Amino acid sequence: MLDVAIYPVGIDLRVDHIYSLLSVGSDDVRIIEIWGMGRIGKTTIAKAVYNLIFHNIEGSSFLENVSEVSQQRNGLVQLQGRLLLDILMRSGFKISNIARGINLTRERLCYRRVLLILDDVDEMDQLKALAREHNWFGPGSRIIITTRDDHLLDVFQVDKKYKVKQLNHNESLELFSWHAFKSNHPIEGYVNLSNRVLHYIRGLLLALEILGYSLLDRISEWETILEKLENIPPDQV
């Protein structure tokens, strides 16, 4: 099980929608794209989906921060090795280069029903190295890709797309309050400041969590902190 969120406000409805797109139980290989702006909660939602279905799969792998890892020395080779280790539950694969990793992935996984989540993809080379074709994976496999760039996958064989939308006002207020006040609503005297936070964050799930947590036990400093933050785009919080 992956750690998802302490306060999973607004998660269940989005997970249910993605689950319906996956058609778990059918024998086709299905690739789903989850896309949206930064800090909106794509990774959190993908983790919740993973937890919902991984136990019905022969092998599973959640490759987090694909963009960041792929920029490291031999990053894509590292990711290929992690993918095989996670799903086959064995090490010792000698992957000397990306082409070798592609061949191993295709040979070893084409008969296995797998769940693979590629988190934060931003280059086609990452997809080509890790999940280029449906037939790399066995019947019933599900591949989920999270990305900020919807157009990145226009030339990729994605079966379904899901755009993550911002939390609505009530969801945002509840999530922020849990992190900032340890309650499902603002404490007395801080409703206006809380609404100011919501106006700034604009329903970005992860940003609400980060900002709410950072303001916990610092209520007296809110005015000063908010004045500084309002000069920073919310997806960079």
Describe the structure.
This protein is an alpha/beta fold and 237 residues long. It has 2 domains: 11-163, 3-Layer(aba) Sandwich (Rossmann fold); 169-236, Helicase, Ruva Protein, domain 3 (Orthogonal Bundle), CATH 1.10.8. 44% of the residues lie in helices and 11% in strands. It contains 10 helices and 5 strands; from the N terminus they run H-E-H-E-H-H-H-E-H-E-E-H-H-H-H. The protein has helices at 11-22, 42-53, 66-70, 75-88, 98-109, 124-130, 169-181, 191-201, 205-215, 222-229; strands at residues 30-35, 59-63, 114-118, 142-147, 160-163. The protein has a 5-stranded parallel β-sheet with strand order 2-3-4-1-5, sandwiched between helices. Helix 6 (124-130) links the parallel strand 3 (114-118) and strand 4. Helix 7 (169-181) packs parallel to helix 9. The longest helix is centred in the middle third of the chain and has 14 residues, at 75-88. The protein is elongated. The model has no long low-confidence stretch (mean pLDDT 92).
